[in-house]
Amino acid sequence: MHHFICIDSFKGCLSSSDAARAIRMGILNADPDATIDWSPVADGGEGTLAALSANGFRELTAMTIDLAGRPIRVTYVQKGQTAVIEAATICGLHLKRPEDAALLLDTRGVGRLVKQTLATGVSDLYLALGGTGTTDGGLGLLSELGAQLLTKTGRPVAWQTNPLLETERIALPSPIDSLHVLADVTATYAGKTGAAYVFGSQKGLTAQQIKLLDARLSHLGQQLGVEHVAGAGAAGGLGGAAYALGASMESGAAYILQQIGVEARIRQADYVWTGEGRIDHQTMMGKLPATVVAFANRSSVPCILLAGEVTERLEQAWICETIHDPDEEMTLDPVVTKKRLTRRAEQIVRRLMTR
């Protein structure tokens, strides 16, 4: 049997590569004659640069500021005249410190790096979204790229709090045709499927702050014309801000899978393996596992989905299982998680071989 492994990272635990290697070991434990193809992947969030670096993109570094305004050196990648910036390297949730107030974090650092990179003359700049600790509607990005954020009195915002709370009107600069968004979810800018309500709590926002920010996102989303754009709510509204600047909106998972030639590799496989740390309602909103399952279904190849936790089963997957046995506690320990991935893959292949 020939297997193709295309699994996302287990956030805070295993990289995409580590997860794929663990599954590979389990397959070979059950079937030493199996042939296996695999590649590190991502969906625009954590691991995007690593996935592209393994497929012909070279790494470059630059200085900018993080989500709290602190200087930070970050990596981005480039291939020819195409560059890709991963927003999480600049304003990722992992960069939030205990003393940082969730409400006050912004995306100015992302805008600053976008401006620097565009100045190098690239023809296409992709902004990979996902895993951010910010909910500023992307106003920090807009400000750095020439937009005027104005208060009720027509004055520029003072940046004393979240710019969403100060901004009443936005004067946009000329469109940036070379900018593209790689969204990891299809969340809207505002509302129950929007940036604040879907992701706010995991970023440390209180229920009251989420309600307040959502109201501001709704107001400014209408002004920017992004209130109905799928993906506008990605990265705390960063997707909508970039779209308002003229950026195209693309699936991060689909873009990266295209870069690794996923369709041809799936067609050659008897089974496809995918997954991530948690399968839930967000998975159906454009995350990598759902995208891989869709590709596999189009080629009529059975897709096996493994996760650390499954709270909402992905029905389109042929097999969708957690890697933990019922009597085992879930864990973020990478050694334990790798062993359980290997064990579950071995169990599944043994079942397949008895059919």
Please provide a brief summary of the model:
The chain is of the alpha/beta class and 355 residues long. The chain is 35% helix and 20% strand.
Describe this structure in words.
The two termini are 13 Å apart. The chain has helices at 16-30, 48-53, 88-91, 108-118, 139-144, 163-166, 195-199, 207-224, 234-244, 252-259, 262-267, 288-298, 334-353; strands at residues 2-5, 35-38, 58-65, 71-79, 82-86, 124-128, 148-150, 169-171, 179-183, 248-251, 271-279, 303-310, 319-322. The protein is of the alpha/beta class. Helix content is 35%, strand content 20%. α1 (16-30) packs parallel to α13 (334-353).
Number of helices: 13
CATH architectural name of the largest domain: Alpha-Beta Complex
Low-confidence stretches: none
Q: Biggest sheet, strands in spatial order?
A: 3-4-5-6-9-10
